[in-house]
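User: My collaborator sent over this chain with a note saying "see what the structure looks like." That's all I know about it. Can you take a look?
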Amino acid sequence: MILHPDQQGRECRGILEVEAESVAYMVTSAHGLDSSQYTFNYVAGWALNAVTEQRDLADILRSTGQRVIGAADLILQTTQPAPTVTDTALDALESDIRVQTDPMRWEAVSVDEAITPEPPIVPSPALVPSVGRLP
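Assistant: Without extra context I'll predict from the sequence alone. Here is the result:
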């Protein structure tokens, strides 16, 4: 309805399906649901079904892209959940870390230095009590 309110199904069904499923994928993905295994095959099938002599696959994807993004954006403006207390706390922590980090003080490290671990610290034998000896 958002994509084609005035056309009432006069568009090619393949294009309608590509757009509807693409919008659904974007919205559900923004809400943390992964439907990619189902969606990609479904969209590909309908997109190939919509190919004609006048319209190739690239034209179909190009013409539907902007409409899909616009519709998904409109839906997400309404359905995006409010940030949770955890989200707010993590955002605040992230901004604190950015403020405290001074990129001018970073030091360049060679690849060898970054990969080579530091040798372990071995205490002096004089500091390690021997087993079985009384002081």
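A starting point for your reply to your collaborator: Residues 57-79 form the longest helix (23 residues).
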